[in-house]
Amino acid sequence: MTTILIPTTPERHERLHLCLQSLQQNCPLPIVVSLCFMPAAGAVEPTLKLAQAAPPGPVMCLNDDMVVLPGCIEALHETWRERGGLCFPSDSIQEGDLACVPYCDRDYLLANLHAGYIHNFADTELTLRARQRGELHYVPYARLLHHHWTKGAPNDATYEKQKASWAHDKALFRQRNPDA
After folding, report:
1. What pLDDT was estimated at residue 11?
2. Residue 102: DSSP 8-state
3. Largest separation between any pair of C-alpha atoms in the chain
4. pLDDT of residue 12
5. b/e per residue, 123-161, with b = 16+ CB within 10 A?
6. Is the separation of the CB atoms in 69 and 19 below 8 Å?
7. What per-residue confidence (pLDDT) applies to 10?
8. Do residues 75 and 139 lie in contact, with contact meaning Cβ atoms separated by under 8 Å?
9. Are strands 58-61 and 103-105 parallel, antiparallel or unpaired?
10. Angle subtended at Cα 74 by Cα 14 and Cα 81, rounded to the nearest 5 degrees
11. Rounded to whole angstroms, what are the CA distances from 109 to 56, 59, 113, 155?
12. 8-state DSSP, 105
């Protein structure tokens, strides 16, 4: 069974509804959805809290502004079962460059997602570490839609918190990864 980790905020109930509806309609695999409501907290802290509470096994980090398309989670799960490591789908923004929607073992996520980040660059570092170890697996036929502010989604306090944390998170990434 896969645990889907979704950090969200109370203001995003409409986006969350679409995300959950897409999981219900498009995922025939057994899943457990775990939600963490924290007002504009950034994604890293609530994601780590959710992962710590999840049972051992596969987890998928999903944002509340995402819609899972048919076959996405099945493709990620099958690739993860065959190859392990860190698998990630096409999210209509990163397209193979960045695992912003990681699918991996819970313990892998807990060991590799750094708690010092607020929101930005945590996925960049996660991707970098997996790539360095040969454990990064892009699954382009696993697709989801990412309704992000950079794609025209309405701006809200959560996105403002993400933007405000950019400088902090970028500095931390450079400090931790000077050769990147």
Report:
1. 81
2. -
3. 43
4. 81
5. bbbbbbbbeeeebbbbbeebbbbbbbeeeeeeeeebbeb
6. no
7. 82
8. yes
9. antiparallel
10. 130
11. 11, 8, 6, 29
12. E
Alpha-carbon radius of gyration of the chain: 15
pLDDT means per 10 residues, the chain with 180 residues, are: 91 89 93 81 86 96 91 97 95 64 95 91 92 95 80 70 85 94
Predicted model pTM: 0.89
Which letter does DSSP use for residue 8 in this model?
E
Q: Is 15 helix (H, G, I), strand (E, B) or coil?
A: helix
Annotate the chain with DSSP letters as a single string. Answer: -EEEEEEE-GGGHHHHHHHHHHHHHH--S-EEEEEEE-TT--SHHHHHHHHHHSPSSEEEE--TTEEEPTTHHHHHHHHHHHH-SEEEEE-SSSTTS--SS-EEEHHHHHHHS-TT-SSTTHHHHHHHHHHHTT-EEEEEEEEEEE--GGGTPPP-HHHHHHHHTHHHHHHHHHHH-TT-
DSSP state at residue 134: T
Distance CA 65, CA 72 (A): 16
Q: Mapping DSSP to helix (H, G, I), strand (E, B) and coil, where does residue 157 land?
A: helix
Amino acid at site 9: T
Q: Compute the residue count for the chain.
A: 180
Tokens 């969350």 belong to: 16
User: Is residue 63 a contact partner of residue 151, using CB atoms and an 8 Å limit?
Assistant: no
